[in-house]
């Protein structure tokens, strides 16, 4: 199946003297994490299906610096940022889409001051726009009537006020969108942000991802939809701890749509 | 004619306002101990935020019960203070209810004040019950030690007494009751005083009148020492709050200069700093003077409602971090620094203490997920997260004191451009897997 994936790089576009419609910023999780790679592939399948002329940086991509910045290492963050901006500007990138809200937030909000200004979209926003333009259609069949709840990633929701695009897509699947008691502006963190993903939690009486998983399980969804590779990991772990793997799946929005199309 | 009461009144008024002014000056000086921050942009949006959030209480009502009760107390507080204007004029020139000559309108005004006073009284009693009987969790977290707890109750008692005095004053004012206009609530209090002589009634009325105005002046001066400064500072605080998306953390300019220099092969590293650019004394914040003045204003504005802490994922799962405590600690340390400056004739003498470790522990700082729930929850646009980040910056950039796993993560980013130890050359391998 993988041979069907068309993933051109910027270097290839450049060699042909062409400019892609959009740059897909894959991110570290999307490139290296086994679970997140599936999200990356699902999104690429959708891009291929919609015949979007996109490119990736491939080996020229490097961490945006988000975890370093949130951990307090402004030097490392800015080194990463300036290096990435040099690459992006050299390719004259105008528009970027990414499936990681952390990359999304950093490139969108923190790069402009350092010389990198681009139109940045989260993949759910981008998929929504493909749908609105009629370039992509969603068939609900598979998920019709399924109870799906959306876990708002902090860096997409509160941080950047994107709440509707992922929900619109779930509704397009003809699924039953159900909301947790803490959602949108008051959505509870999965516990991974602020560089927590890379360290053990401080002493407490519970892990944050367990607290969030419990909130999700309260409303008995069949699927917990995520829009962030880190949230995805945290919620998947939470479901495992609660031994609910057979009842509840954790899936990225891109996977839901690709799955509905049998891609 | 006896001028003694007028003189006494004027003296009390001058003393009350004078002492308050002195403390406000101290407050401003302390806030200015913070680093400079340019917030002169986007005035119209700032006015709009202030109008919506502070004046319009838009974020208070997200919790409907507390929000509704708070609006009653807030509106009551603002409107009933029109009455204070009359009290001051009466007190200074010796008149009695000088505005009563305006007739029907006066009755309408006082009538509305009386209704509001009763509503405020009820709201404040409900607040007290929520705090002390229902023991709502956020009022009983570990940072709510005896002083913050008592402080909150003192304020409620103050308001109860002030509202009661206002109603008693009206009820025992036989002139006012005889007018029978505007005594909507106080007429029902009159029966409690039947049988008292004209003189006794007058004495009670005068006592209530004096206690009411003295009480207001004491309350005004109590503000600086309490958590209650928000009634004034909510306005500048919402005005100066960040207008950027919550996810956008500031880029340190000093770092930008150094990074650009490192990346530019043509730069002479030994050249003098251009255009008077200074390398900051330290990166990040270990004490209050390293924070910017808006962060310090935030600390004085915090009224310790605890909405931030109740929304904090770290706090909800039993970690030591409480965004409210970050603000309380910042204010306490700032006050300590201010007192230090006062006792040392205008200069700060090192006291071997700082905000980091003496007030805020590293464990608290590292527990934050930077999720912005606290920032979103604050009804007056306080940003505890920005302080946490600045203190992390100090820990990492000045002390290299990040938790070991984070150091590993950062080494990975430095070496191979990802937080995990994967080769950058393998970034596109997923394509063929």
Descriptors:
heterodimer; A: 263 residues; alpha/beta; Rossmann fold; four-stranded parallel sheet; 8 strands; 43% helix; globular; B: 433 residues; mainly alpha; 2 domains; elongated
The count of domains of chain B is 2
Shape descriptor of chain A reads globular
CATH T-level fold name of the largest domain in chain A: Rossmann fold
Average pLDDT score of chain B: 94
Adjacency order of strands in the biggest sheet of chain A: 2-1-3-4
> Separation of termini of chain B?
101 Å
**How big a fraction of the residues of chain A is strand?**
5-15%
Distance between the termini of chain A: 9 Å
Radius of gyration of chain B: 27 Å
Largest sheet of chain B: none
Largest interface: A-B, 73 and 70 residues
**Unreliable residue runs of chain B:** none
What is the helix content of chain B? Answer: 55-70%
Describe this entry's structure for a reader.
The complex is a heterodimer of chains A (263) and B (433). Chain A is of the alpha/beta class and 263 residues long. A 4-stranded parallel sheet of chain A has the order 2-1-3-4. A 4-stranded parallel sheet of chain A has the order 6-5-7-8, sandwiched between helices. Chain A is globular, with a radius of gyration of 18 Å. The N and C termini of chain A lie close together (9 Å). Chain B is mainly alpha-helical and 433 residues long. Chain B has 2 domains: 194 residues; 171 residues, Orthogonal Bundle (Fumarate Reductase Iron-sulfur Protein, Chain B, domain 2). Helices cover 60% and strands 0% of the residues of chain B. Chain B is built from 18 helices and no strands. In chain B, helix 1 packs across helix 3, helix 1 packs parallel to helix 7 and helix 1 packs across helix 13. The N and C termini of chain B lie far apart (101 Å). Classes of the chains: A alpha/beta (263), B mainly alpha (433). The interface between A and B is large, with 73 and 70 residues.
């Amino acid at each position: 199946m993988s041979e069907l994936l068309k993933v051109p790089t910027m270097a290839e576009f450049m060699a042909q003297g062409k400019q892609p419609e959009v740059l897909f910023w894959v991110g570290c999780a999307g490139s290296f994490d086994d679970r997140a790679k599936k999200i990356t592939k699902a999104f690429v399948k959708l891009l291929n299906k919609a015949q979007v002329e996109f490119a990736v940086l491939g080996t020229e991509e490097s961490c945006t610096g988000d975890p370093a910045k949130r951990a307090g290492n402004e030097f490392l963050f800015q080194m990463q940022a300036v290096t990435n901006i040099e690459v992006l500007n050299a390719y004259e990138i105008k528009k970027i889409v990414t499936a990681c809200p952390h990359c999304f937030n950093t490139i969108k909000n923190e790069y402009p001051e350092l010389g990198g200004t681009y139109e940045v979209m989260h993949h759910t926003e981008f998929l929504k726009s493909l749908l609105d333009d009629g370039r992509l259609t969603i068939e609900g069949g598979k998920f019709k009537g399924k109870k799906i709840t959306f876990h708002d990633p902090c860096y997409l929701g509160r941080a950047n006020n994107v709440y509707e695009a992922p929900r619109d897509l779930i509704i397009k699947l003809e699924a039953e969108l159900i909301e947790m008691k803490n959602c949108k502006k008051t959505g509870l963190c999965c516990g991974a942000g602020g560089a927590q993903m890379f360290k053990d939690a401080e002493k407490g009486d519970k892990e944050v991802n367990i607290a969030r998983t419990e909130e999700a399980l309260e409303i008995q969804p069949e699927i917990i939809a995520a829009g962030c590779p880190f949230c995805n990991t945290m919620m998947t772990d939470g479901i495992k701890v609660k031994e609910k793997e057979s009842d509840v799946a954790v899936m990225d929005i891109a996977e839901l749509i690709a799955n509905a199309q049998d891609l | 004619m006896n001028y003694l009461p007028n003189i006494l009144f004027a003296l009390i008024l001058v003393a009350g306002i004078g002492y308050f002014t002195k403390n406000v000056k101290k407050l401003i000086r302390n806030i200015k101990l913070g680093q400079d921050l340019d917030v002169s942009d986007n005035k119209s949006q700032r006015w709009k935020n202030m109008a919506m959030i502070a004046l319009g209480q838009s974020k208070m009502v997200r919790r409907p019960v507390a929000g509704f009760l708070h609006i009653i107390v807030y509106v009551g507080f603002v409107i009933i203070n029109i009455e204070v204007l009359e009290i001051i004029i009466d007190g200074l020139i010796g008149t009695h209810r000088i505005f009563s000559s305006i007739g029907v309108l006066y009755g309408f005004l006082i009538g509305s004040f009386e209704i509001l006073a009763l509503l405020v009284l009820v709201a404040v009693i409900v607040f007290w019950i929520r705090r002390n009987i229902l023991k709502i969790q956020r009022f009983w977290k570990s940072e709510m030690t005896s002083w913050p707890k008592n402080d909150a109750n003192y304020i409620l008692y103050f308001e109860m007494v002030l509202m009661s005095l206002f109603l008693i004053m009206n009820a025992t004012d036989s002139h006012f009751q005889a007018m029978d206009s505007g005594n909507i609530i106080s007429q029902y209090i009159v029966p409690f005083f039947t049988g008292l002589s004209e003189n006794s009634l007058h004495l009670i009325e005068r006592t209530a009148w004096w206690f009411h105005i003295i009480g207001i002046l004491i309350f005004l001066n109590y503000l600086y020492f309490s958590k209650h400064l928000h009634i004034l500072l909510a306005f500048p605080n919402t005005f100066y709050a960040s207008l950027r998306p919550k996810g956008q953390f500031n880029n340190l300019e000093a770092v930008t200069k150094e990074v650009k220099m490192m990346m530019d092969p043509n730069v002479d590293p030994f050249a003098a700093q251009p255009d008077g650019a200074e390398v900051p004394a330290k990166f990040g914040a270990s004490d209050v003077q390293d924070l910017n003045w808006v962060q310090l204003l935030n600390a004085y504005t915090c009224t310790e409602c605890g909405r931030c802490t109740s929304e904090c994922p770290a706090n909800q799962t039993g970690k030591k971090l409480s965004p409210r405590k970050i603000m309380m600690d910042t204010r306490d340390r700032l006050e300590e620094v201010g007192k230090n400056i006062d006792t040392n004739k205008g200069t700060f003498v090192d006291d071997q203490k700082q905000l980091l470790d003496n007030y805020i522990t590293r464990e608290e700082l590292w527990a934050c997920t930077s999720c912005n729930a606290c920032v979103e929850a604050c009804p007056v646009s306080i940003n505890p997260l920005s302080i946490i980040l600045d203190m992390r910056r100090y820990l990492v950039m000045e002390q290299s004191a990040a938790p070991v796993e984070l150091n590993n993560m950062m080494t990975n980013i430095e070496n191979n451009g990802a937080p995990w130890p994967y080769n950058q050359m393998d970034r596109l391998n997923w394509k063929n897997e």
